[in-house]
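#lab-general

N.A. 3:47 PM
ok so I finally got the sequence cleaned up, no stray characters, all 366 residues accounted for. can someone with queue access submit it? mine expired

B.Y. 3:52 PM
send it over

N.A. 3:53 PM
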Amino acid sequence: MTSVSTPHSSYSADALGNGAPNASALVHQPIIIETQDLRKVYRTGFWLKAAPPSLKQCSLEIYKGETFGLLGPNGAGKTTLLKLLLGIVRPTAGGATLMGKPAGDSETKASIGYLPENPYFYDYLTGWEFLSYTAGLFGIKGKAQHRRITELLELVQLDLHSAKKKQMRRYSKGMLQRVGMAQALINDPEIVFLDEPMSGLDPTGRYQVREIILSLKEQGKTLFFNSHVLSDVEIICDRIAILDQGEIVCIGEIKKLLGNPDYYKVKGKGGSLDVLDQWLRDITFADGYWYGTLYEDPFEFMSTARLMNAHIAKLEVAKPTLEEFFMEQIRYRRQQRAQADLERAAQQKSAGKKRPFKKAARKSVA
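B.Y. 4:20 PM
back already:
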């Protein structure tokens, strides 16, 4: 079957000929996480001198059941925002609510799961013992505890024998990440916060964590996570926000942020050159294939290709990847800031110049 692929997904030519794949549109459910002009300034040193703001006037609305990704370079303020939402630190200004209650509310915390970027485990315990301890903190005991831990170990694909018999100090990074994911879900939370869940994992571990997140998404959980792995974010998330130097650069659905494609890149062989010339621009030939740019309806083009017995090897949407979009937004925002800083410095320099004055004439002494 001929495959027609976009940069991050593929569809059969038959399916494409019968209509576009149905992408589930994001339906805005009730707001479950909200921040209003959230600001955080840390104070350091003996005199508690204020450092540059870690977060500036951050306003977000996250809907129940959606998967929300927070992106940004190191030091952008992602972990600070996460800690504010969890009630680990207090805001300098502004506020945040989770499930309609202030961030840090004790009742709300019982419905939250959290996996930090670098979790600390009691490594002399086995995975099972650690999960039993975590379950006890939420009042889950007896048969219910045993059943819940077994379900979670199956979900995160951690071997039962290793979980019961092997101390966590002997676990690999991937195994520890699975234990961390299980403890974040032990209380069957409504909201799950994941701070860099793919950090330090090999491709196999990343794939397994991504599958776990997708399974939680299918269960209707609200997921909020930070990540540097943009290819995974593009697959998993409904919406994203880009944070840089404490400010929200942009926010929205990935498809809308990346924009609708204006044209497609096509690779194929066979068919009629006269017909192809009517459909494609910039046709070239190499290694037995022809290449061209399609500005028309791709589904009609695929139907025409079948009629002229052309083999379509590839049809790619010509739009930026999330990584390209991310770098463009960061670069543009930093150029704006640099320009604003230069203008501000020029104004201060101009205002600081002393006005010219006339020297007082000396009186002559007779």
